[in-house]
């Protein structure tokens, strides 16, 4: 990493933003100094400050959406939905804080009370991915600040401009500058932040490779919070349905929304043998109609480019590897502009492959597996070390019950895309997809820890058994004022 970090627009290759790389130590120290005062404020104060952040986001929604679209390449309409999610996060987090981490008092005999209250951890590091550069880190930052933590946020090195803009909006809303710090940098700065002795935890969204490295790095430090949101190799099963056209729409949305750059995109279509040909015809036709273009193009595209040429090369190479290992091409993945990372949706039938790689191919690439029985479909769905999202399209309520009971994933949907998740629900996965610290509505759980207190207004105590009968025993019941 050089001393400057430069961000380029994927769609044009033009430079968008540059800044000096941050000094991690000084950013952590600033946040460390600031957190006790922030934690001592009433939660209503912090809520109001964050509501002003919503006002700031709404006032600058078009600027932010434009920046997200330019820096990620995602269509402007989709960037606008990301901005909406950023604004909605505050009310959801306030509700979640109240529901998931409420204060409780349990009255006992003789004025004794047991209380449960929650405390912030202190200073939390947040590492963000590039695919939702505002919404996903925001999903950690808002609940962390609300609970009274200070935060050191390092956006992805591929989307630092959006990260910097997000921090600027928090500061302009009244979040003290030292309470939320920005670290500009790449993996090197991420490692330094994660290893910093003065952080109390790390909230991470990104790839399984990085998540596993962080998990190793945090081994032996049980005192630190580590929340990992990682990738998926998500299955979508299509079973008996009379409406193959709608099934195809759900498959295409699941696989190709955000140019396949969502953790919850379907990577594997598992289909009943008898339905495979007509369904694939529908999916192929629909995929061929998807507009792949610049984020601001008119008519609006369904998909923009992937994040950079390296990612596009990686995907096209993997398509070729699947082909040369027995995959049958349903639809070629192509590069319409040679030097830019636009990709058309690729579909490949890998049923005949002896060994299918269990990796997340983070782009518009769908693998198809045909199966003969529903049991085989579920076994195939679970044939992965990941466990983020899984959908069943078609079938019956009984088959859905069977699917729900046996599918190993943190998000399980029926007749909905794999990427349909409510922010009012927890979001996370098992296996290589997460470490049982789901985010979204349950983010409140990892931003504060519960403290149990037994309390009495008066100093009162007695020892009822096990004392010798002597003068000293009387002292025990004497009240000291
Ligand atoms: P990434 O793992 O490459 O990077 C994520 C962040 O970690 C970046 O800020 C990066 O600079 C930092 N980083 C990289 N290596 C590091 C290291 N060794 N130590 C410390 N920090 C390091 O992920 P990405 O490519 O930016 O994002 C795409 C991935 O994120 C996909 O795998 C996707 O599935 C996943 N994702 C998961 C969710 C979820 O909620 N589960 C949501 C969105 C994206």
TrEMBL record:
Cross-referenced PROSITE patterns: ALDEHYDE_DEHYDR_CYS, ALDEHYDE_DEHYDR_GLU
The UniProt record lists the keyword Phosphoprotein: no
Keyword NAD assigned: yes
Domain Aldehyde dehydrogenase stretches: 8-444
Residue numbers annotated as active site: 229
Family according to the record: Belongs to the aldehyde dehydrogenase family.
Protein name as catalogued: Succinylglutamate-semialdehyde dehydrogenase
């Amino acid at each position: 990493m050089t001393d400057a970090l430069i961000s380029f627009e994927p769609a044009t290759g033009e430079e968008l933003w540059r800044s000096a790389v941050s000094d991690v130590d000084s950013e952590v120290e600033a946040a460390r100094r600031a957190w006790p005062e922030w934690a001592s404020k009433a939660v209503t104060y912090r809520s109001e400050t964050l509501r002003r952040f919503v006002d700031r986001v709404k006032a600058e929604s078009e600027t932010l959406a434009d920046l997200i679209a330019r820096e990620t390449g995602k269509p402007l309409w989709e960037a606008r939905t990301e901005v909406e999610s950023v604004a909605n996060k505050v009310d959801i987090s306030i509700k979640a804080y109240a529901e998931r981490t409420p204060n409780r008092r349990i009255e006992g005999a003789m004025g004794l009370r047991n209380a449960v209250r929650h405390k912030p951890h202190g200073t939390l590091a947040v590492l963000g991915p590039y695919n939702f550069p505002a919404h996903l880190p925001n999903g950690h930052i808002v609940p962390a600040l609300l609970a009274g933590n200070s935060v050191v946020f390092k956006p992805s090195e591929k989307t630092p401009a959006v990260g910097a803009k997000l921090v600027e909006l928090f500061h302009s809303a009244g979040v003290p500058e030292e309470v939320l710090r920005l670290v500009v940098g790449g993996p090197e700065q991420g490692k330094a932040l994660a290893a910093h002795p003065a952080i109390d935890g790390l909230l991470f969204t990104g790839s399984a490779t990085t998540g596993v490295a962080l998990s190793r790095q945090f081994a032996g430090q049980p005192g630190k919070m580590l929340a990992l949101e990682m990738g998926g190799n998500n299955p979508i099963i299509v079973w008996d349905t009379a409406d193959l056209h709608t099934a195809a729409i759900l498959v295409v949305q699941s696989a190709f929304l955000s140019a396949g750059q969502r953790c919850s995109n379907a990577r594997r279509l598992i289909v009943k043998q008898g339905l495979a040909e007509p369904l694939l015809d529908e999916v192929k036709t629909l995929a061929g109609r998807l507009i792949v273009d610049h984020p601001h193009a008119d008519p609006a595209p369904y998909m923009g480019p992937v994040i950079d040429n390296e990612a596009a090369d990686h995907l096209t190479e993997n398509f070729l590897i699947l082909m040369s290992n027995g995959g049958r091409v349903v639809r070629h993945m192509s590069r319409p502009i040679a030097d830019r990372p636009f990709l058309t949706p690729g579909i490949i039938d890998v049923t005949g492959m002896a060994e299918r790689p269990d990796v997340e191919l983070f782009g518009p690439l769908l693998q198809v597996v045909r199966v003969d029985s529903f049991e085989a479909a579920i076994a195939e769905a679970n044939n992965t070390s990941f466990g983020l999202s899984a959908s069943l399209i078609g079938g019956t309520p009984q088959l859905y019950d069977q699917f729900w009971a046996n599918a190993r994933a943190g998000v399980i949907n029926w007749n909905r895309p794999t990427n349909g998740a409510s922010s009012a629900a927890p979001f996370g996965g098992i296996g290589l997809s997460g470490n049982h610290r789901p985010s979204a509505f349950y983010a409140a759980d990892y931003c504060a820890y519960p403290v149990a207190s037994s309390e009495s207004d008066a100093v009162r105590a007695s020892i009822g058994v096990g004392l010798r009968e002597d003068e000293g025993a009387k002292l025990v019941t004497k009240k000291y004022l």
